[in-house]
Amino acid sequence: MAVPSRELHRIVPTVIIYNSEKKYLITKRSEKLPVFPGRWTVPGGGLSMDDYETMPFSNKNDKQWYFVLEKGLRREVKEEVNLEIGIPEYLLDLVFIRPDNVPVVVLTFIAPYVSGEIVLNDGENTEFQWINAAEAKDYDFVGDIAMEIELADKRLQEQ
């Protein structure tokens, strides 16, 4: 397998957003997208240097930034569904290698809905639903997001 660099990975935060009724937000990808067209997913997307390189350093001496992953996740949620979320909590990770041989690390979080009305971004998502965990099995998800929603639901029930 010809991976460009064995140390570099695309970092993709995603989030399972839940509301006060313990329903989970899912979105349907456009049929026009080249990757996973027409499949259901949750908000999220790739971390970019744009998420931090214009920010002041958190640690000036060592030229480091804190909370970039959360900032990128919040940006993706705002861009994709126009919502504000509460504090994201880590749920799980997933690793795969894209068809173009780029290794991807997906970090999935759960977070409560805080505010906003859903407005889907133009061209990426075409529908949305708020579903309960039992309904997740009825959707054609990218990967095993139904299982991820079940894990999120179990965690929330334990809290």
Main features:
four-stranded mixed beta sheet, alpha+beta
**Ends apart, CA distance between termini:** 43 Å
Give me the strand/helix succession.
Answer: EEEHEEEEH
Tell me the overall shape: globular
Q: What portion of residues is helical?
A: 10-25%
Tell me about the largest β-sheet. 4 strands, mixed
Q: How would you describe the oligomerization state of the chains in this entry?
A: single chain
The strand count comes to: 7
- Name the average pLDDT: 93
Cα-based radius of gyration, to the nearest Å: 16 Å
Q: What proportion of the residues form beta strands (DSSP E)?
A: 25-35%
Supply the number of helical segments. 2
Low-confidence runs of at least 5 consecutive residues: none
Structural class, from secondary structure content? alpha+beta
TL;DR?
The chain is of the alpha+beta class and 159 residues long.
Describe the structure in your own words.
The protein is of the alpha+beta class. Helix content is 18%, strand content 30%. The protein has two helices and seven strands, in the order βββαββββα. It has helices at residues 68-81, 145-158; strands spanning 10-18, 24-29, 40-41, 84-85, 89-97, 103-115, 125-131. The strands form two sheets. Strands 1, 4, 5 and 6 form a four-stranded mixed sheet that branches. The protein is globular. The protein starts with 9 loop residues before the first strand and ends with a helix. The model has no long low-confidence stretch (mean pLDDT 93).
